[in-house]
Amino acid sequence: MNLQRSSQPVVPAPPRLARRMSRMAASAVREILKVAERPDILSFAGGLPAPELFPVRELAAAVDDVLRREGPAALQYSVTEGFHPLREWVAARLTRQGARVTAEQVLITCGAQQGIELVGKTLLDPGDRVAVESPSYLAALQCFGGYEATFLPIGSDDQGFQVDDLERAIAKGKVPKLIYVVAEFHNPKGTTLSAERRERLMALARAHRIAILEDNPYGELRFTGSAPPSLLSMDDTGLVIHLGTFSKTLAPGLRLGWLVAPPELHRAATVAKQASDLHSPTLNQRAAARLLESFDYDGHLGRIRQAYGERCLAMQGALARHLPEGTKWTRPEGGLFLWASLPRGLKADDLFADALREKVAFVPGSAFFPAEKRHEFLRLNFSNRSPERIEEGIARLGNVVRQHLT
Amino acid sequence: MNLQRSSQPVVPAPPRLARRMSRMAASAVREILKVAERPDILSFAGGLPAPELFPVRELAAAVDDVLRREGPAALQYSVTEGFHPLREWVAARLTRQGARVTAEQVLITCGAQQGIELVGKTLLDPGDRVAVESPSYLAALQCFGGYEATFLPIGSDDQGFQVDDLERAIAKGKVPKLIYVVAEFHNPKGTTLSAERRERLMALARAHRIAILEDNPYGELRFTGSAPPSLLSMDDTGLVIHLGTFSKTLAPGLRLGWLVAPPELHRAATVAKQASDLHSPTLNQRAAARLLESFDYDGHLGRIRQAYGERCLAMQGALARHLPEGTKWTRPEGGLFLWASLPRGLKADDLFADALREKVAFVPGSAFFPAEKRHEFLRLNFSNRSPERIEEGIARLGNVVRQHLT
After folding, report:
1. Complex ipTM, two decimals?
2. Which of the residues A255, A286, A381 would you substitute to probe the B interface, choosing the one with the greatest number of B C-beta atoms within 10 Å?
């Protein structure tokens, strides 16, 4: 008998996890991002907005003002729906952009991510079908996966979500409960859903009474071209839930976003949020509302758009200079990402370790596919580095790709 | 044909909600609190901490300092687990209080409510049995209900959760997946679980490998007596998940709490939080950590404890003076609430409307029962009013009760 061994403490099994957790396993991307954010790596992997453009001083002044004038109220519990002046601001802005939205339809969330979560919680029973573009925003897939949804993967091209693909699926009886769309500057692809496809998508949703989740974290970041109407603005029968956020326009560290929904869905999402975290931070909501009273928000957005537009062009130029023939990429009109594909059967996953050795990083595109994974793609973030650093990083990436071609 | 009618727009049915939403219907309490917080009402209904004790100036200085010194980082995305110095602070404090906790076991949440939510998400499949004291914290019942749990209601007396009741249920084969306990200054009752019951509860959990959720939002608010060891400190086999919060000690409007769990559950809760809202607000976490570097937290807690202790005694004295014979109430050693029972078959629910007419409010206790509701109880909050206002409000309540007795 090996006494040494038997005297080791027995570690009992931990409590069994819920079934849904098997659908939310920590993603490979989480691990990739941890490595990629090492300070020695020139990373295009994350989805970080440019911190040098955060309105730090203006936010500091707003927080200070709120705490001086209304300190106790700004630190107390508040209603789940959110701070009313902030809800009014959101409704007014969306209305100016072509939708008709009242403050009562707005629920202030902890980022747009919580909006996705609340829609999953409110609408999805296990096995419910969710139509998702293939590829899609990974944390939305994880979230819907956690609600044990069945994915209906929809094809994707340079105009985004292929509505005719959805139409064919529906004709075969595969009617989804929910359609998830990032219509503007898609993550990971950077593409924009064309106006014509938006019309057809709305018509399909109307005909089959399918709810649409229009996730719009990047819509304010258009640096070229003009915006098609939002699905929210086209909705006349209460099917569209719309998500927005201050994470890419003011600062993600505030965790402030919003969900806009027809009355019954709004009520359900509010109840779900109450059980989730009671309400979004009072201080942050009041500070944002105070800031927006006097801040030149559109001027500020103009600076972000200009910087991101330059960075996006810098990245496209660098890709043309440094990547081998046959490499392709999307031409985003806004947002944070572009999506490149490698030539001659190269797999982005195979390049990743060598890229790290060259001190450059990206996210292999395979991570974003809900079902059959494809391996030739990379997601590249352009918002978080200067044009010079982008040039340098893409040159390194070019070296890695060339090594793999020979 | 009635043209007028047929020309009205047809409002189509909204998308069907998920099954779980029927278990999370907006509670009666939500409506009660809305009415009760009218400025003309002297309300004991809410669960608000005393805003005049919020460290407003100190928080303002901490936020300002963080934004001046580390603005962009304080406003950027950050890791799901939370800001490491704040996790270290939580671990150190819990360790000083008798548990052995490392920063790696701490997950920073949006209030303790999100801790409850994450435990539900991580552990509960539909039909899983959750043992809950009867009565229990309402938003926990709603949250577990949302995960379609089956409640195992456990009796409750002046020492809290009746462990022998749970023992009998287990002997009959009703083994819960999770035990939910507010061991310190229970909401709604104000009771504290005795040290002896804690021992027996841990022994039961160990014997049957049942996870325990120790929800401890009020533990720092003890104004008399001495604290039994926490369940967390007694756990040697990885069964206890412990929740705490700054909502009652610093300010609820920051939405900062923590979840402490054994490694596998911590990992699962982190993945679940990532899908829920990515992470808690960076700015709030850094400001709290900065504040706690220099703030006399224990001195601050001393002032809260003294005020709440005075208010609690004031309420008990007022109840003795103004309520008719046969009225009983708990004697909390801390926290925010006491629990009164009416004599001679009176139902608190029946008194509510008349109480509003007398400009006083409470929460009828029936709301807090997971199954068979009892109607003789009221939950009374003492933290949010001065002793003078408490005297006045309880005198009004006494009038209402006397009217119903005659």
Report:
1. 0.95
2. A255
